[in-house]
Amino acid sequence: MNETRDYPRMVETDAGEIELRLMTRADEDAVLAFARKLPAHDLLFLPRNISEPKVLSAWIHEIERGEITSLLAIWGESVVGCGTVVHDPHSWSPHVGEIRMVVLSEVRGTGVGRVLSQETFALALGAGLEKLTAQMTVDQKAAIALFESLGFKAEALLRDHVRDAAGKKHDLVVLGHNVAQFLAQMEAYGVPGAVRS
Ligand SMILES: CC(C)(COP(=O)(O)OP(=O)(O)OC[C@H]1O[C@@H](n2cnc3c(N)ncnc32)[C@H](O)[C@@H]1OP(=O)(O)O)[C@@H](O)C(=O)NCCC(=O)NCCS
């Protein structure tokens, strides 16, 4: 994926100054520590459990192959949030990207998720993706509100689609956003390039 935005960059949030930077292999230990602080329920929207080193290592390989772009939010020395754009140029959906986002419980509600979502959205637009999706368990009210505020709308409900470690199944909602149409509308309003860096 072709990132054209400037990182690392400091941004102000209600939790204080946060550094945004693209995730690399050097972040492996810090991201593992971050993933292990997250409640398992907050990881159910992900296809695999990122608190397992093998899964994290596969994720880093995908970053290095350019299939995934992950942006980290760093507070002090610790990773407190991560926003990711996943896209497969060799699939039948080369124009579609999935956004995945998670923020540590301790800093939620302070604007970190908002900043990460805006940045990952802009990265996806910069990569020329035409449609974005995001999925989450239906009880993730903050995530649904956040994505809806960016223009995403519910497209599908997958019943009993994920099963937690205790064996309980949960429904997933899939939200979608036709960003190509959104960009065309922005240009019609006279703001070409407004959301690209
Ligand atoms: C979704 C998530 C990343 C938001 O992170 P956050 O740092 O708390 O987000 P912010 O503080 O920037 O809040 C962003 C918006 O979320 C919404 N929001 C935040 N907390 C909320 C809550 N408890 N209830 C309802 N909406 C809430 C608000 O619309 C807020 O908008 P505002 O900027 O106008 O206030 C975080 O809740 C999370 O990690 N959830 C678990 C993982 C998940 O399900 N991810 C979604 C999969 S893509």
Description of the molecule:
- This protein has five helices and eight strands, in the order E-E-H-H-E-E-E-H-E-H-E-E-H.
- It has 197 residues and is α+β, with helices and mostly antiparallel strands.
- It has a single domain (9-188), classed as Aminopeptidase.
- An eight-stranded mixed sheet has the order 1-2-3-4-5-6-8-7, with helices on both faces.
- Strand 1 (9-13) and strand 2 form a beta hairpin.
- The chain starts with 8 loop residues before the first strand and ends in a 9-residue tail after the last helix.
- The mean pLDDT is 92.
- The structure holds coenzyme A.
List the helices and strands and how they pair.
Elements: E1 9-13, E2 16-22, H1 28-37, H2 53-65, E3 68-75, E4 78-86, E5 96-103, H3 112-126, E6 131-137, H4 141-149, E7 153-163, E8 169-178, H5 179-188
Parallel strand pairs: 5-6
Antiparallel strand pairs: 1-2, 2-3, 3-4, 4-5, 6-8, 7-8
Kindly report the spatial arrangement of strands forming the biggest sheet: 1-2-3-4-5-6-8-7
Kindly give the count of domains: 1
Helix content: 25-40%
Percent of residues in β-strands: 25-35%
Largest beta-sheet characterization: 8 strands, mixed
The shape, in one word, is globular
Give the CATH level 1 class: Alpha Beta
The CATH H-level homologous superfamily: Gcn5-related N-acetyltransferase (GNAT)
| Rg on CA atoms, Å | 16 Å
Tally of contiguous helical segments: 5
User: What assembly state would you assign to the polypeptide chains in this entry?
Assistant: single chain
Return the string of H and E elements.
EEHHEEEHEHEEH
User: Per CATH, which architecture?
Assistant: 3-Layer(aba) Sandwich
User: What is the residue-averaged pLDDT?
Assistant: 92
Beta-strand segment tally: 8
Distance between the termini: 15 Å
Overall structural class, as computed from helix and strand content, comes to alpha+beta
Poorly predicted parts = none
**CATH fold title:** Aminopeptidase
